[in-house]
Design brief:
The complex is a heterodimer. By secondary structure, chain A is an all-alpha fold. Chain A is 83% helix and 0% strand. In chain A, helix 1 (4-25) crosses helix 4, helix 2 crosses helix 4 and helix 3 packs across helix 5 (84-119). The longest helix of chain A is centred in the middle third of the chain and has 36 residues, at 84-119. Chain A is elongated, with a radius of gyration of 22 Å. By secondary structure, chain B is an all-alpha fold. Chain B has 15 helices and no strands. Chain B is elongated, with a radius of gyration of 32 Å. Classes of the chains: A mainly alpha, B mainly alpha. At the A-B interface, helix 1, helix 2, helix 6 and helix 7 of A face helix 9, helix 10, helix 12 and helix 15 of B.
Chain lengths: 194, 330
């Protein structure tokens, strides 16, 4: 895992770059929602591009941004010319990988399930078995929620999901720190200038 | 990033998650068990026999007198108080443990999360309260330790009642207490890694961890939303003046007027400003960004003061590193 302060530097660099790029063409957007969207989007893309596509969530983030109609133009603007390769990688990888993984998982499950049933059949009381299933259901529910939270999480199995989540959390923390820093600094500046 | 260490601090009031509290109870029970072990064999053998019984048989054995166990809850308190001076604690606490195990095996019978089981944890933890206060009394500790124990138990009780899996959790903890006492801080007993009960415990532990992770991710994402909204509200235009931001904040930062949350970032800020200087140097040569910087320079005259303001002593290595990174990107 990269050092957090270098992470923040990279993120800030790319974020400034992205913001300047997207404000370059249009000077008319003054509504707060548009500004907020632009800021958030550029921050997300900066985060994702610092990873350079080595993490699944970053690719998925970029892919989602470029797929979404309203943010597509902005995203392309922000990402700029040097990210063509990145966009290509992000657009092609997730669907291919997910379909392959899902197919292989299904095959594996089919082959294993026939064996597992014959291996161990201890006569447990019914209620103990249902306790297990209830617990499993809880874990499954939470895993689904996590999959919906982490970008690109739907295509991963449990173990890699946890790894991606850890990575994503580290990046989210860096993003929050930098944004908070800049926000408070601008507020101080505004207060001083008033 | 704070790692969630499971270190046990004796006597501290825990605001930490479950494993540490159960660790505390482990140690308490271990002391108790050690006292029991020195007992005449008859009592110890009955207790050990209870441990070794599989859950179902134990349940059948003890299920025959659940109400007597409830009734005996009051009695054994009196017993223990009377036997306190004698030092013969073993018989009543043994009985108390058996009653506890009975209560919790009754749980095992009704392991689904149902409203009736939620009432039973209160009974059991009430019992456990009594059981725990007696060994505390038998110690030569003053009542303060007693109070902390009951506090911790009360907290555990509350948490159990609040949690969705209250029945399961109390059952799991009690099972751990009643059966894994010789061991300290072990989640799965030897040779029982795939046992149904320990499996259920581990799965519910996983569910709790996942819950924490989900809450953390959600809170971070919400913070990002709020901060971007805040930034959008503060700035009138999209490409807001980073120059003014970084130039004028140098003064307040040095004076220490900025709120404390910014000051931890003062160290990483040094490389930030370095980057900015590198930006300017690099981009002066880059045709694409020249119009951008030209516009910026028209509006603000902060660039030259900025160079003089931030004369931080930075290592040459980091400076060359940043410039290399920039060269790679551009």
């Amino acid at each position: 895992m990269r050092h957090p302060s270098s992470l923040k530097q990279e993120f800030l660099k790319k974020w400034i770059l992205g913001l300047q790029r997207c404000g370059f063409s249009s000077k008319k957007s003054t509504s707060i929602m548009e500004r907020k969207k632009a800021i958030k989007l550029s921050a997300d893309l900066a985060m994702a591009s610092t990873r350079n596509g080595t993490a699944c969530w970053s690719r998925a983030l970029i892919a989602n941004a470029s797929r979404d109609h309203e943010s597509k133009i902005l995203a392309e603007q922000i990402l700029g010319p040097e990210s063509q390769s990145l966009k290509k990688a992000s657009s092609t990888m997730p669907p291919v990988i997910c379909s392959r993984r899902i197919r292989s998982k299904k095959i594996l499950k089919r082959s294993c399930s026939s064996q597992v049933r014959r291996v161990r059949k201890i006569a447990l009381p019914q209620k103990v078995l249902s306790a297990n299933s209830v617990a499993k259901r809880l874990v499954q529910k939470r895993t689904n929620i996590l999959k919906s939270l982490v970008p690109g999480g739907e295509y991963m199995d449990d173990i890699s999901l946890i790894e991606e989540t850890l990575d994503y959390i580290a990046y989210l923390r860096a993003q929050v720190d930098v944004m908070r820093f800049v926000a408070s600094a601008t507020e101080v500046v505004n207060r001083n200038s008033d | 990033m704070e790692p969630n260490s499971a270190s046990y601090v004796p006597g501290s009031c825990p605001t930490r998650p479950e494993p540490e509290e159960t660790g505390l109870e482990f140690l308490q029970f271990r002391d108790e068990i050690q006292r029991l072990m020195t007992v005449p064999p008859e009592n110890a053998s009955s207790f050990r026999a209870l441990l070794e019984l599989p859950a179902t048989q134990a349940m059948q054995l003890l299920h025959s007198s659940p109400h007597s166990a409830a009734g005996g809850g009051d009695e054994h308190k009196r017993h223990s108080s009377s036997s306190f001076t004698n030092g013969n604690l073993t018989f009543p606490s043994n009985k108390a443990l058996i009653e506890r195990a009975a209560k919790f095996s009754v749980f095992a019978a009704a392991a689904e999360i149902s409203p009736e089981t939620s009432s039973v944890p209160s009974n059991s933890s009430a019992n456990s309260d009594k059981v725990k206060t007696e060994p505390a009394e038998t110690d030569s500790n003053p009542g303060s330790s007693n109070k902390t124990q009951t506090q911790k138990l009360a907290k555990r009780k509350e948490r159990q009642k609040k949690g969705k899996e209250s029945a399961k959790k109390s059952k799991n903890e009690s099972r751990e207490d009643a059966e894994k006492l010789p061991y300290v801080h072990v989640r799965a007993r030897r040779g029982q890694a795939t046992d149904s009960h320990s499996l259920a415990e581990r799965i519910s532990g996983t569910a709790l961890v996942l819950d924490e992770i989900i809450n953390h991710v959600q809170s971070l994402q919400r913070q990002v939303e709020l901060l971007s909204m805040r930034l959008a509200a503060v700035n009138p235009r999209i490409d807001f003046n980073f120059d003014s931001v970084f130039a004028t904040e140098g003064g307040p930062l040095i004076d220490g007027n900025i709120p404390s949350m910014v000051s931890p970032l003062m160290w990483p800020e040094n490389p930030f400003t370095e980057n900015r200087q590198n930006f300017q140097q690099q981009w002066n040569f880059d045709a694409v960004h020249q119009p951008l910087w030209g516009r910026e320079e028209e509006n603000h005259t902060f660039i030259t003061p900025e160079n003089s303001l931030f004369s931080y002593d930075s290592s040459a290595n980091s400076a060359s590193l940043h410039s290399n990174q920039l060269k790679m990107e551009l």
